[in-house]
Amino acid sequence: MKTSINPPKNEWLALLERPTQTIESIEETVTAIFDDVKRNGNDGIKRYTSIFDGVELDELFVSEEEIIEAEKLVSNELKDAIAIAKRNIENFHAAQKTDKVAIETTEGVECWQEKRPIQKVGLYIPGGTAPLFSSVLMLAIPAQIAGCKEIVLTTPPNKRGKVNPAIIYAAQQCGVTKIVKVGGIQAIAGLTFGTETIPQVYKIFGPGNQFVTIAKQLATKYGVAIDMPAGPSELLVVADEAANASFVASDLLSQAEHGSDSQVILVSTSKEKLQEVEDEIYIQIEDLSRKNIAKKAIDNSKLIFVETKEIALDLINEYGPEHFIVCTNDNDFYVDGIENAGSVFIGNYTPESAGDYASGTNHTLPTNGYTKAYSGVNLDSFLKAISFQKISEKGIQNIGKSIEVLAEAEGLDAHKNAVTLRLNSLK
Amino acid sequence: MKTSINPPKNEWLALLERPTQTIESIEETVTAIFDDVKRNGNDGIKRYTSIFDGVELDELFVSEEEIIEAEKLVSNELKDAIAIAKRNIENFHAAQKTDKVAIETTEGVECWQEKRPIQKVGLYIPGGTAPLFSSVLMLAIPAQIAGCKEIVLTTPPNKRGKVNPAIIYAAQQCGVTKIVKVGGIQAIAGLTFGTETIPQVYKIFGPGNQFVTIAKQLATKYGVAIDMPAGPSELLVVADEAANASFVASDLLSQAEHGSDSQVILVSTSKEKLQEVEDEIYIQIEDLSRKNIAKKAIDNSKLIFVETKEIALDLINEYGPEHFIVCTNDNDFYVDGIENAGSVFIGNYTPESAGDYASGTNHTLPTNGYTKAYSGVNLDSFLKAISFQKISEKGIQNIGKSIEVLAEAEGLDAHKNAVTLRLNSLK
């Protein structure tokens, strides 16, 4: 691990730098596959599924039989755990519903804002070694609460053309309307253009590797919105004497096991605690099944000592971590002062994995410094705000003159005229 | 004008198609300017300002003297009109503030969501013939209410290196912290990378021509968020016997004067009203100062007759207009049923220009069908939602087991271990 003691402010940027990825070569691949899927629809989708996933698909959708089979294959223990996570996620996201905002800005001028669901959304769930059914919960639950009509989930099939039963089961629990057995760039292309059978959607959500990330970015050029740009997962912990070093070490390791490019940072105002946590990490890491992955991430991780909590907070806001654990004897200081973070975990008994699975908060969060401008996925991610206005005869008489003056000053006669005609009719 | 009578549903897509723009050649220019500004900072900015705006700038910022001068140059009548618009916009956007959303999802598991301002934002205001100070109000007012610390406005200078006084005055009224005399691609590049004197921002807002639009899209590749993709402005009016044809014509013309690529559509269940409005348009257009621009847009505009309001609503939701005026004898039907629109104007006395300037709603709205997934600019556009969680010893005992089961099923041992350690410590 790399330890920095009192790094000067002008070195923070370099110290906190995330690994950059070169994307030029990927872009060409992504563009080619998009063009192909746009032209050839399902044939293109199937071709790339054969190339990248090594399976010839006859049928692109999970069938009714596969849904029934999945239900049988998932253990009752897992079903119960999913039910508890689902209930908490539902409660937290349902609480985010906002009422219509309505005011009369001037007598006779009623303005209001209402949120309406995005009608068609696509949820991307990565394949690979771990079946990320927790991401299904995190995306499908708010989509369902928002009232999205069409919720299309895409996920890569395995070599036998099957989707992991836990993913199918979770999708069924949360109102997903279609499960497409397609992953990677071709899945994003399918959702972007639509095919003979895959619906075109208006917004695409979900994590993915570099290829999926670039594909989502390309999708925005074709008029499809995306949840956010993605990057490797990150955790920053601020800890002092109040923190349990063993717990902190376990949290840093839970981040490190995600991948060798995971970002793991510990900031402390206590040199003793830094050392204690480091020692604990090297003890705990030995027992992990993903030890090799975790070791690489830990080698690149950073232990940073700073003199005061004010400096610590400045540095943390400069970094803007995706996950931020606060375990100090003045947690309120950090909670009140944090400007840039995705999700914040407070106190010794709040591990990051609680938010990853079951506390109720969403785990789809901005990385790579995007916390400075982006929210994590929440109920509003599946809604858009529409504004309404209704002006009475009295109302247009109250604000008409101002509109005329403003429109004229901007040189827009017809804008002015639309008001003048109405005002004249009321004389 | 082009009249369609009862277009069949399978022809709607073609009928409602927006003009597509080719962007490949622009992209090269934008990329070259971005690279230059990234490398050369203010020197690059000044070079392109010289090339595109025809002025050699010594100083990139509007000075204290220019601010004082602007205040003198703006008429009292315009100041009063700006004050009224500002008050309404402030009221409507302040009403959009949301409280902290806090719930205990399980006993001992507190979750909450709080919104915090985006610290640094850039507002782009186009130059050209009309000084769009109204866009200054629409962007700076919510930024100020949100609590953004740095609000940087950029706008192109005229040939004498000056910024329109109404823009400077409006910016001063709304808490803009810096006004940069730079427009076009180089302005967006400056906000994206920062220069010796221009601050790097986290999110860029505002309208602009094709170059600015592509530049904003490129900015997202460098980690800067943008408000939304932009396209030519649009208005769709639905009108029947209840509508005043003269008013409707004036609204369609106020849209048409924006530019020859403006989208103007009238949908009606009354053939008589369609004809009446068309006749009125040809009468009113003659008196407009921007007659030539408006005529081109009107030539391409569409009058669509459909048999029922249900069909009309379907068609309107398929199109997803930026501005949507409803003037019928069943306005509630449309207001309740609209799924995709930016801003909705209801009744005979609610011209679009009211929302453009002074009713209080925002005029920065999604075009080009983006209403299907994007909100217009609103208070939330300047905030991001952060989630927080605080779990007690009791809380982790309540949900710990579920997290262990879920983490194990996803093959993430270290995630499980972070919970197991805590549960064991409580045994």
TrEMBL record, chains A, B:
Metabolic or biological pathway: Amino-acid biosynthesis; L-histidine biosynthesis; L-histidine from 5-phospho-alpha-D-ribose 1-diphosphate: step 9/9
Residues that bind Zn(2+): Q255, H258, D356, H415
One GO biological process term: L-histidine biosynthetic process
Binding note for cofactor: Binds 1 zinc ion per subunit.
InterPro entries according to UniProt: Ald_DH/histidinol_DH (IPR016161), Histidinol_DH_CS (IPR001692), Histidinol_DH_monofunct (IPR022695), Hstdl_DH (IPR012131)
GO molecular function, one term: histidinol dehydrogenase activity
Cofactor(s) this protein requires: Zn(2+)
EC identifiers of the protein: 1.1.1.23
Active site feature: E322, H323
Domain of life where this protein originates: Bacteria
Residue sites binding substrate per the record: S233, Q255, H258, H323, D356, E410, H415
Catalytic activity annotation: L-histidinol + 2 NAD(+) + H2O = L-histidine + 2 NADH + 3 H(+)
Keywords: Amino-acid biosynthesis, Histidine biosynthesis, Metal-binding, NAD, Oxidoreductase, Zinc
Main enzyme class: oxidoreductase
Any one annotated GO CC term: cytosol
Positions contributing to NAD(+) binding: Y124, Q186, N209
Protein task: Catalyzes the sequential NAD-dependent oxidations of L-histidinol to L-histidinaldehyde and then to L-histidine.
HAMAP family (alphabetical): HisD (MF_01024)
NCBIfam families in the cross-refs: hisD
Name of the protein in its database record: Histidinol dehydrogenase
Annotated organism of origin: Lutibacter flavus
